[in-house]
Amino acid sequence: MRLFLCALLICLVPLAGHAAADDRGHARLWQAAVVSLEVTRQQYDHLQPWTRQAQPVAKVGVVIASRQILTTATDLQDLTLVRVQKGGRGQWWTGALLWADYFANVALITVDDSDFWKGLKPVALAPRLNPAASARIVRWNAGSFEMRKAEINRFDVTNPGFTDTAHVFAELSAELGGAGWGEPAFDGKRLIGLVFAQIGNVCHTLPAPFIRSIIDARAKPGYRGLGYFDFTWQPTVNPETQRYLRWEGPPRGVVVIDVVERPGTPSVLQPRDLLLEVDAFPIDIQGDYLDPLYGHLMLENLATRNKWAGDPVRLKIWRDARELEVDYLLPEARNAARLVPTAPYDQEPAYVLLGGLVFQPLTRDYLRSWGENWEERAPFRLAYFRNEEPTPRRSGIVILSQVLPDFFNLGYHDLRNLVLERLNQQPVHSLADLVAALAQASDGFHVFDFMKGDSLQRVILDAHQLEAATRRVQQVYGIQQDRVLPRAQAPTGPAPSVQK
Questions:
Q1: Fold of 19-222
Q2: What is the phi/psi pair of residue 19, to 5°?
Q3: What's the DSSP call for residue 41?
Q4: Which residue among 85, 100, 167, 378 sits deepest, i.e. has the most Cβ atoms within 10 Å of its Cβ?
């Protein structure tokens, strides 16, 4: 037995040596592709939207083509400066953001100085991921090149960055701390993904095939960005559900329970439709389909699997005891039907200051100002709206977030987080509505009506003194602008092509 074990160890030592040699060889390749990023961005306080401060963020990038560095889009919004370092130490070079797709969480950065690119070599993106392979997550850390073994646990679907887009991600296990900032994962010579989040030892990673689909799509004219499914469904695990829908045959599909009605665009789906297939992929009773690259995934991924906003998706449904096929047009993720949207990227928070009264649109970024458990800590009435959909009666929410004390607003100093319904009898769904209603003063007064049930339902201000009071409050509290209105999101533009 002892001789057998010795022989076995002798056989294993060369294998381990080969693995170590492979790592050393690959490490030279990875070191010539991986760079450090130092990002400086404007950080806004949504509770005091006129304040800002510079926030430094350390990220990781990987060269994937001539003069192009791939990273995640996390914390690149409101960017003021990006610097890039190669080799883990030494000189920092000024970089520039080529583009960032926040909904896909993918970005490209470049450096104009030709000297920076000397010694760097691009790596290729893997066309598919092998769950059986042993990967490596790498980065420069305090001047040393850090490599950690990682194993692919599974593939799943997520909504990153609080957006409405849902796409595939890979779950990797690795003994690595402080990850989630774009660290590249490799399987040999090929890049298999970027780490965008970490929970314990589990790293959530954007898979290379998904990244490639975004880069290729953006290189073409007319890229419209990612879409999403705006209908709500539930599984049909209970067989009574399928019998209720008069489905005949083996259990399959999920039942649609809610659809978004958009003005001028009636939905092709109806509540109680049984969704059987999406683009010829059969849907099971749990809402999953079999993906050729990733295995069983939730059907939401089919909205972002080489599909873009405005593209038709072929749905096979069961309605009124008969089978139908309909074309569902993917809505834009950035125009998601949410009563409480995420604040627009690359824009300072919007507000209007009127005599010390601060009005803001209710956004998820505002609610998240209450910290990690904002769903529980934010004002209940405001948090209640977060999962509601806009309606013709209420397309958005404007709140009186606070009152900056001044003798002009005496008696109203303690008011905060009230939902504004009307100003001068004009409905208010946006800050634009609020500004327009200021021209409708009645008998020299502005009358603000708030949602019933709040502690106070009406505020009356002298219209003649409003402007002077606003200027006085600005001077006392050091507020440069009395208003910042939201601007339309710029259309998603084309990006430079990337070598494959």
A1: Thrombin, subunit H (2.40.10)
A2: -60, -45
A3: E
A4: 167
The two three-digit tokens of residue 3, written as one number: 């001789």
State the span(s) of the chain assigned CATH 2.30.42.10.
232-331
Average pLDDT score over residue span 82-103 = 95
Architecture of domain 232-331: Roll (2.30)
With b meaning 16 or more CB within 10 Å and e meaning fewer, what string describes 136-160?
A: bbbbbbeeeeebbebebeebebbeb
Q: What is the pTM of this model?
A: 0.86
Residue 376: what residue type? Answer: E
Mind listing the pLDDT tens digit for each residue in 34-92?
Answer: 999 999 999 899 999 999 889 999 999 999 999 999 999 999 999 999 999 999 999 99
pLDDT at residue 237, rounded to an integer: 92
Give a three-class secondary structure readout of 57-94. Answer: EEEEEEEEECCEEEECCCCCCCEEEEEEEECCCCCCEE
The segment(s) of the chain belonging to CATH 3.20.190.20 are 351-484
Give the Cα separation of 118 and 131 in Å (integer): 34
Two tokens, residue 27: 């490490």
Least confident of 38-47, 101-110, 257-266, 414-423: 257-266
CATH, range 351-484: 3.20.190.20
For CATH 2.40.10.120, the residue range(s) in the chain are 19-222
Whole-angstrom distance, CA of residue 17 vs CA of residue 30: 20
